[in-house]
Amino acid sequence: MRLLLVEDEPEMAEALRAALRRHNINVDTAETLELAREALANGVHDVVLIDRQMPDGDGLSLVPMLRASPRQVPAIIISALGKTHQRIDGLNIGADDYLPKPFEVDELLARIHAVLRRSPEIVVDTMCIGALAYDTSAREVRVSGQKIDLTRRELLILETLLRRPGRTVVKAALEDAVYGFDDEIQSNSLEANVSRLRRKLADAGAGAEIHNVRGVGYFIREVEE
Length: 225
Known about the structure:
CATH superfamily of the largest domain: Response regulator
Order of helices and strands: EHEHEEEHEHEHEEEEHEHHEE
Shape: elongated
CATH architecture of the largest domain: 3-Layer(aba) Sandwich
CATH class of the largest domain: Alpha Beta
Domain Response regulatory: 2-116
Organism: Paracoccus aestuariivivens
Number of helices: 8
Domain OmpR/PhoB-type: 124-222
Low-confidence stretches: none
Helix content: 25-40%
Pfam families: Response_reg, Trans_reg_C
Number of domains: 2
Number of strands: 14
Mean pLDDT: 89
Distance between the termini: 32 Å
DNA-binding region: 124-222
């Protein structure tokens, strides 16, 4: 999952980014509405968290842009402006949820998963292939009921491939899903992560294999008997 955090307070942004990354959520940050619009134009985010009191305007101004997009990316307002009429304004303009500050990270995570379940692009909680089951809410991968440990990037690669089983995901799309705007990508970084993920799936007897389409990208499919 890739999330855009629109927040101008550096300490708040870094604390949220660190907390969400521990739950295997890749977080990009935008310190102004202008930067947020540029980030959203890339079309790579699954959900957006928006503070209202931004240096160049009210964060609510981003919501109509999101609603006009064919992707319909879910938007959650996170703001100290938490009075009833302010929350109503946010919901009426098209926000999917409104969470007043301060809040607990666990509640934010629950709300993120709730809006994603309602999103037309994400319609299942568990994705299965072969003996592998990936719980998108718990961010857990199990093979024949046994949990297997994956790194954050391995999990993001697997999730991206599972959303398009049997179809090739181009390398650039995988890199967009796995790496943030601020990450430095080594020339063979994606390949190394895919290789480790392949080994873990094979060792666990997942019954699913990741295949390389040379010069294009990767796809996952069930192992043929």
